[in-house]
Amino acid sequence: GKSVDTDIVKSPDTYVYTKDLGKLDDVPIIVVYIGNVFAGTESDLVTIEGAFQISDDPIPIDSGTEYGEMMITSASGDKIMMKNKDGIDLDDGGNTRIMGDIGFMTSYDGDRYCPFVRRTVDPIAALKIELPERLIVGEEIVITITADGAPVEGAEVWFAGENLGSTDSNGEVRFTPAAAGTFIISASKANYNSIFIAVRVTGGSPATADAVIALQLAVSGGWDADADVSGDGKVTSLDALMILQMAAKNPGAVPEIVINELMPNPIGTDRGNETTELYNCDDKPADIGGWVLKNEGGTTYTIPAGTTIEPYGYYLTTKVQLDNVGGYVLLYRDGEEVDSSIAYTHSTEGLSWQRRTDRLDTNSDSDWIERDSTFGVSG
Predict the structure, then answer these.
(1) Are residues 241 and 348 located together in one domain of the fold?
(2) Per-residue pLDDT tens for 130-158?
(3) Which range marks the domain in which residue 105 is found?
């Protein structure tokens, strides 16, 4: 850091650092209350019981300056008067910002409203999921949530879309899986970066997809070179899973596209700025020409022919009208529904509904969160 001042202060006493700001002289910038000073043979100790600091980069206040919908009409040493020159519409059940992060929140019936100040809080840390080496059907597993190596209490944990509750003081929740297969475990807590991971549960009754393919292999008659993908001389459900994974990479397979983010209530004019984002979960380009997006009112939009999404890329459109009070979006391919968004019940001006992490899709509303938009970038 940079040293700005040195002084000898007795205890208890208050240290004040002043600076000339604009037309004002000796403005208190930093104030520190010194409680006690202890001098030792090897080290010294100072206790600070309070500190106050203001910015040394003030903003000029001039009549006629506009901030959002408001304009400064007069300013004095103890008061700033601001007025809106035009009427401001407050939508029922919506949030309307009038300048910067200041706005009004309106009740759904339109009878009540209150002012608010929006604050963006940086995450404390990223969550991490810790698990046993093997997950086995019918055996209790301990899911531990940590951040920077320390357990996190109160984190919400989901397994395959099922809410397992909140972690205890040790950062743990317990769960006994009932079926084998590949599942998603996710965890989230306010002010922390959320996380999700894919895990494999073995033993017991296999998951539906594995069971169907394994049955087809079994009835095909003994050992088969094409079916023995692992090359261990026998056909098992592992071979079935590998065949399923290879089939998913077949060029003729349907690409995995999800509705990734919605902006129902953009700042300013809604029409033409309400945005829907699709995400390509595959490692190959996806042709989505002719696919259809439909909102809760039944209005549809057909994606133009020849439209493609690059691997792990995004497609954005403002052609789908989104209701501020509540709604949802459906995605169709050849008349068959392939994905749906959260059925949101409110929207905040300037914020978007988005999956906590790109492609996170456990068929649960907990996959979604309302926050600052991340259109076209990894969320």
Answers:
(1) no
(2) 999 888 888 899 999 999 899 999 999 99
(3) 66-117
